[in-house]
Structure prediction request, 366 residues.
Amino acid sequence: MFTYEINNFMKKEERKILRGKKLENFNENENGLMDHGVFGLPFSPEESELVLLPLPWEATVSYTTGTASGPQAILDASQQIDLYDPLHIDGWKNGIAMLDISSSILQKTREVRSKTEKYLEEYFKGNVNEVLRQEINIECKIFKEDVKNITSKLLNEGKLVGIVGGDHSVPLGYMEALSEKYESFGILHIDAHADLREAYEGLEYSHASIFYNALKIKNVSKLVQVGIRDFSKGEQEIIEKESGRIIMFTDYENKKALFEGSTWSAVCESIVKELPENVYISFDIDGLLPHLAPNTGTPVSGGFSIEEMVYLFEKVIASGKKIIGFDLCEVAPGESGEWDGNVGARVLYKLCLLALKSKNHGNNQD
Prediction:
C-alpha cells in the first residue's frame, strides 16, 4: 500500500554533525518563517533522532470522520510553535522530522472507507455483508503490515518513532515492530474509551479494537489505561479476565481521589507504579477535555488538561522508566482545522521532547 525510503543511513555522530551544520544558518526564534519541516525545523528524517510517521487512515471509524486530515492539520499548525520549552531545553536540536504525508494512504483510506460505509449501512439493519467485511479486514491487515515494515526499518536505524494518526487503529503495526526490538514493554494509554472490543462491528482492525489486538502481542506485559470514561460491560469483563495485565484508572476514579483530598502527583505516582521499565505512550486526543479537541470523532465529557498529561509523562521519566515510542491519534480538524490542529501540534511537540528527554536521560542534547 505504501512505503517510505530513508536514504543515507548514518551513524549517530554523523547525524549530529549534519544537524550542527544546519543550525549554523537557522534562527530558532523565527522557525516558522522559513519553508522548513514539522515545527519549522530544518532537519531531514535521515539526520534526525526522532522521526514522525504520519498515517492519514480512518477506514473503520464508527462515529464521525475527519481523522485522516489530522496529520496535515497538525503539520500546518506546528509552524507556529515556539521551540523553547523548559520540559527539555534545546531538545529539538536532537532532530525531529516528519516523513511526507502519503497520497497513496489518503487514496486507499477513501476507497476502504467507502466500503465500510456500505457495510455499516447494512450492518445497522441487521445484515452482515461477509464479502465486504472480509475485503475491509484484508485491506486493514495490509495497512498494518506496511506500518510494521516501515517502523521496523526506522527502529533498526536507531530512530525514535512517533506515529501521527489517523484513527486509533493505526499504531498496531508499530506495536508489533516494537515487540521485535523489546522483550517486554508496557503501554500507557490515554483515552476516553477503553478500545478493548473484539472486532467491533465485525471489523477486526477497528479503531475500537486497537488494544484488544495489542494484547495479542505477547511482549506487551502491561496495559495501563488512564482517563477512561466510556466503556462497555464486555470490555470490563476482558479487564477482569486479564487478571492484572490491564490496569484501568478511570476518569471518575481519578477525579474522586482529588475530590477526597489526594493530589494529582499522588495519582500519577499510582499510575507510574503500574508501568514496567519500557513504556509506549498511546495518546487519543479525546482523552483531553472536549473543548481542546471539539472535532474529534467520538467526544466524551470529562477528561484532562494538557498540563495534567505532561505532568504524568514527566513522572514516568523521573521514575527512571524509558519512553520507547508513542502515537497521537484521532485529531480531526473539522471545517476550520485551526484549533484542533493547533492543540494536536502542541501535544505532539510535548511528546517529542519528552521522548527525546527519556532517550537522552535528561541531557539537553546528545
Q: What stands out?
A: The CA atoms of residues 261 and 290 lie 25 Å apart. The chain has one domain: 21-359.
